[in-house]
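Sample pair:
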Amino acid sequence: MAFNKGDRSDSSKVRRGGMHRRKKVCVFCGEKNGVIDYKDTNKLKRYVSERGKILPRRITGNCAKHQRALTVAIKRARHLALMPYTCE
């Protein structure tokens, strides 16, 4: 018996009542003073996972420019022992 494209079940056709995700907006672009400072560890901790990894752009919603600056700031804070490299 050959597979026909028309024989698909209803469940695979359309996802009903699906939630649409809102487009995430860069927090730093929205602020007037969107400076990313390595000494502001409270702000930087929001962009680090509980395992100590830097969260990617698709999760944080930052633009590429600010994600790079955020990564540099987190690495500087780690180097100066303001933030841990890993969380235990």
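DSSP finds four helices and no strands in the chain.
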